[in-house]
Amino acid sequence: MVTEFSALTIEQAKKWVKSRVSEKRFRHITGVAQTARKLAKQYGAEPEKAELAGWLHDACKEFKDRQLVQLANDYGLPLDKVYEENGHLLHGPIAAEVVKRELNFADELVLNAIREHTLGAVAMTTLSIVVFLADAIEPGRSEDFTKPIWEALERAKEIGDAQALNLAVRVTCDMSLRDLLMQGRIIHPRTVEVRNYYTQLTRGLA
């Protein structure tokens, strides 16, 4: 039987994920959960759901690539060549499935935020955007990466909360693409698709 959102508490999620990851990963997760709650309060998402998604988003981050691809096949998730060769990109969708199945959890807003936190998605909910951004700007990230994203968010008084969030997503995609290109890494087409979508939404904003 699938439980309602209220049946899974923050403390239960925190305890569950702590048993699954290394101390270093748990520090990152803690930063994301705290940042997600802060952003949710500021930009109109539900703080409890944002924090919960933050605690759960990297539950499968330390799985091996082969295991993530195999689980995607087992769960019937769509795969492409990039996913098959870069299984770590699946840790969000797999975490959502594991949370849904192991914790009998059914809140799709939270599950989508978990699914979308790595590559993003076109037309994300405010909750998904908040978790996507929290993963990018939590305190453990380098200031070189986070500063332009925070600067986009700080434009909320000028351009409104919704556009500030959209702009921050665009900047996050730009920063991620910059790093991937510098490292000579494979880029999943969704990163480009998401970047283009949010660029269109924020056309004219520097």
Compact overview of the structure:
The protein has 206 residues and is mostly helical. The chain is built from twelve helices and no strands.
Domains counted in the coordinates: how many?
Answer: 1
Structural class: mainly alpha
User: What is the quaternary state of this protein?
Assistant: single chain
Number of strands: 0
Q: What is the number of helical segments per DSSP (H or I, 4+ residues)? A: 12
CATH superfamily: Hypothetical protein af1432
Distance, first to last CA: 49 Å
The proportion of residues forming helix, as a percent range, comes to 55-70%
3D structure, described in words:
By secondary structure, the protein is an all-alpha fold. The protein has one domain: Hypothetical protein af1432. The protein is 67% helix and 0% strand. The chain is built from twelve helices and no strands. The longest helix has 23 residues. The chain is globular. The N terminus is likely disordered.
